[in-house]
Amino acid sequence: MDAVTTKTQILDLIQSERLNLEAALASVPPGKLTSPIPELGWSVKDILAHLTAWEQLMLGWVQASLRGETPERPAPGESWDDLDGMNERLRQAHQDHPLAVVQADFQKSYQAVLQIVSQLSEADLLDPQRFEWREGDPLWHMVAANTWWHYKQHCQPILDWLGASNR
Fold first, then answer.
1. What is the DSSP string of 60-92?
2. Which band of pLDDT confidence, cut at 50, 70 and 90, is reported for residue 166?
Protein backbone atom coordinates (compact mmCIF):
# COMPACT_ATOMS: atom_id res chain seq x y z
CA MET A 1 0.00 0.00 0.00
CA ASP A 2 1.23 3.48 -0.81
CA ALA A 3 2.48 5.60 2.10
CA VAL A 4 0.50 8.77 1.54
CA THR A 5 0.95 11.79 3.79
CA THR A 6 -0.13 14.77 1.64
CA LYS A 7 -2.79 15.78 -0.84
CA THR A 8 -0.02 16.54 -3.33
CA GLN A 9 1.11 12.90 -3.17
CA ILE A 10 -2.45 11.75 -3.79
CA LEU A 11 -2.81 13.98 -6.84
CA ASP A 12 0.61 12.90 -8.12
CA LEU A 13 -0.28 9.22 -7.76
CA ILE A 14 -3.61 9.70 -9.51
CA GLN A 15 -1.93 11.54 -12.37
CA SER A 16 1.07 9.24 -12.75
CA GLU A 17 -0.99 6.03 -12.81
CA ARG A 18 -3.44 7.65 -15.19
CA LEU A 19 -0.54 8.54 -17.49
CA ASN A 20 0.61 4.90 -17.36
CA LEU A 21 -2.89 3.78 -18.26
CA GLU A 22 -3.16 6.36 -21.05
CA ALA A 23 0.18 5.15 -22.48
CA ALA A 24 -1.11 1.57 -22.51
CA LEU A 25 -4.35 2.70 -24.15
CA ALA A 26 -2.43 4.61 -26.81
CA SER A 27 -0.76 1.31 -27.77
CA VAL A 28 -4.05 -0.42 -28.51
CA PRO A 29 -4.82 -0.43 -32.23
CA PRO A 30 -8.07 1.53 -32.77
CA GLY A 31 -9.75 -1.50 -34.35
CA LYS A 32 -9.18 -3.54 -31.19
CA LEU A 33 -10.71 -1.12 -28.67
CA THR A 34 -14.05 -2.90 -28.82
CA SER A 35 -12.70 -6.46 -29.16
CA PRO A 36 -12.87 -8.62 -26.03
CA ILE A 37 -9.58 -9.30 -24.27
CA PRO A 38 -9.62 -13.11 -24.11
CA GLU A 39 -8.52 -13.44 -20.46
CA LEU A 40 -11.05 -10.85 -19.30
CA GLY A 41 -14.00 -11.18 -21.63
CA TRP A 42 -14.14 -7.39 -21.59
CA SER A 43 -12.95 -4.99 -24.27
CA VAL A 44 -10.84 -1.90 -23.65
CA LYS A 45 -14.05 0.08 -24.18
CA ASP A 46 -15.68 -1.96 -21.38
CA ILE A 47 -12.71 -1.24 -19.11
CA LEU A 48 -12.95 2.50 -19.80
CA ALA A 49 -16.68 2.48 -19.02
CA HIS A 50 -15.99 0.43 -15.86
CA LEU A 51 -13.31 2.83 -14.60
CA THR A 52 -15.56 5.79 -15.38
CA ALA A 53 -18.51 4.24 -13.54
CA TRP A 54 -16.43 3.67 -10.40
CA GLU A 55 -14.98 7.17 -10.55
CA GLN A 56 -18.52 8.53 -10.79
CA LEU A 57 -19.65 6.45 -7.82
CA MET A 58 -16.69 7.73 -5.81
CA LEU A 59 -17.43 11.33 -6.80
CA GLY A 60 -20.97 10.88 -5.51
CA TRP A 61 -19.69 9.39 -2.24
CA VAL A 62 -17.27 12.28 -1.74
CA GLN A 63 -19.95 14.87 -2.52
CA ALA A 64 -22.37 13.22 -0.07
CA SER A 65 -19.62 13.18 2.56
CA LEU A 66 -18.98 16.87 2.10
CA ARG A 67 -22.69 17.52 2.60
CA GLY A 68 -22.47 15.66 5.92
CA GLU A 69 -24.36 12.63 4.59
CA THR A 70 -23.50 8.95 4.73
CA PRO A 71 -23.37 7.73 1.13
CA GLU A 72 -25.21 4.59 0.12
CA ARG A 73 -22.42 2.25 -0.91
CA PRO A 74 -21.61 0.59 -3.15
CA ALA A 75 -24.76 1.86 -4.93
CA PRO A 76 -28.50 1.78 -4.26
CA GLY A 77 -29.71 -1.82 -4.46
CA GLU A 78 -26.16 -3.19 -4.71
CA SER A 79 -24.02 -5.11 -2.24
CA TRP A 80 -20.30 -5.55 -1.71
CA ASP A 81 -21.07 -9.28 -1.55
CA ASP A 82 -21.93 -9.25 -5.27
CA LEU A 83 -19.21 -7.03 -6.64
CA ASP A 84 -18.78 -9.19 -9.76
CA GLY A 85 -22.49 -8.91 -10.47
CA MET A 86 -22.42 -5.18 -9.92
CA ASN A 87 -19.45 -4.81 -12.27
CA GLU A 88 -21.30 -6.83 -14.91
CA ARG A 89 -24.41 -4.65 -14.51
CA LEU A 90 -22.24 -1.54 -14.88
CA ARG A 91 -20.67 -3.04 -18.03
CA GLN A 92 -24.06 -3.87 -19.51
CA ALA A 93 -25.33 -0.36 -18.77
CA HIS A 94 -22.64 1.04 -21.08
CA GLN A 95 -22.25 -1.68 -23.68
CA ASP A 96 -24.45 0.04 -26.27
CA HIS A 97 -22.77 3.43 -25.88
CA PRO A 98 -20.60 4.39 -28.84
CA LEU A 99 -16.85 4.16 -28.27
CA ALA A 100 -16.45 7.93 -28.73
CA VAL A 101 -18.99 8.60 -25.98
CA VAL A 102 -17.28 6.16 -23.60
CA GLN A 103 -13.90 7.76 -24.32
CA ALA A 104 -15.27 11.28 -23.79
CA ASP A 105 -16.94 10.24 -20.52
CA PHE A 106 -13.67 8.63 -19.42
CA GLN A 107 -11.84 11.93 -19.91
CA LYS A 108 -14.58 14.08 -18.33
CA SER A 109 -14.78 11.84 -15.30
CA TYR A 110 -11.03 12.02 -14.76
CA GLN A 111 -11.13 15.82 -14.89
CA ALA A 112 -13.96 15.80 -12.32
CA VAL A 113 -11.88 13.54 -10.07
CA LEU A 114 -8.89 15.87 -10.27
CA GLN A 115 -11.11 18.85 -9.55
CA ILE A 116 -12.79 17.40 -6.47
CA VAL A 117 -9.59 15.95 -5.01
CA SER A 118 -7.91 19.33 -5.54
CA GLN A 119 -10.74 21.00 -3.63
CA LEU A 120 -10.59 18.59 -0.67
CA SER A 121 -8.49 19.59 2.30
CA GLU A 122 -5.67 17.42 3.57
CA ALA A 123 -7.83 16.75 6.64
CA ASP A 124 -10.68 15.58 4.38
CA LEU A 125 -8.33 13.13 2.70
CA LEU A 126 -5.98 12.04 5.46
CA ASP A 127 -7.79 12.33 8.80
CA PRO A 128 -9.28 8.89 9.54
CA GLN A 129 -11.87 10.51 11.84
CA ARG A 130 -12.97 13.23 9.39
CA PHE A 131 -15.98 11.31 8.04
CA GLU A 132 -17.73 9.18 10.63
CA TRP A 133 -19.14 6.76 8.06
CA ARG A 134 -15.56 5.82 7.07
CA GLU A 135 -15.19 4.21 10.53
CA GLY A 136 -11.56 5.26 10.98
CA ASP A 137 -10.49 4.63 7.39
CA PRO A 138 -9.19 7.80 5.71
CA LEU A 139 -10.98 9.02 2.62
CA TRP A 140 -7.82 8.76 0.53
CA HIS A 141 -8.13 4.96 0.62
CA MET A 142 -11.47 5.23 -1.17
CA VAL A 143 -10.01 7.73 -3.62
CA ALA A 144 -7.05 5.43 -4.31
CA ALA A 145 -9.29 2.39 -4.78
CA ASN A 146 -11.28 4.21 -7.43
CA THR A 147 -8.38 5.96 -9.15
CA TRP A 148 -4.70 5.01 -9.11
CA TRP A 149 -5.07 1.53 -7.59
CA HIS A 150 -7.89 0.85 -10.04
CA TYR A 151 -5.97 2.25 -13.01
CA LYS A 152 -3.02 0.02 -12.11
CA GLN A 153 -5.29 -3.02 -11.74
CA HIS A 154 -6.71 -2.60 -15.25
CA CYS A 155 -3.56 -1.35 -16.97
CA GLN A 156 -1.64 -4.59 -16.48
CA PRO A 157 -4.12 -6.87 -18.27
CA ILE A 158 -4.13 -4.45 -21.21
CA LEU A 159 -0.33 -4.50 -21.34
CA ASP A 160 -0.29 -8.31 -21.03
CA TRP A 161 -2.82 -8.59 -23.85
CA LEU A 162 -0.84 -6.22 -26.05
CA GLY A 163 2.35 -8.13 -25.31
CA ALA A 164 0.70 -11.46 -26.15
CA SER A 165 -0.72 -10.11 -29.42
CA ASN A 166 2.72 -8.80 -30.46
CA ARG A 167 4.49 -12.15 -30.06
1. HHHHHHHTT----SS-TT--GGGHHHHHHHHHH
2. low
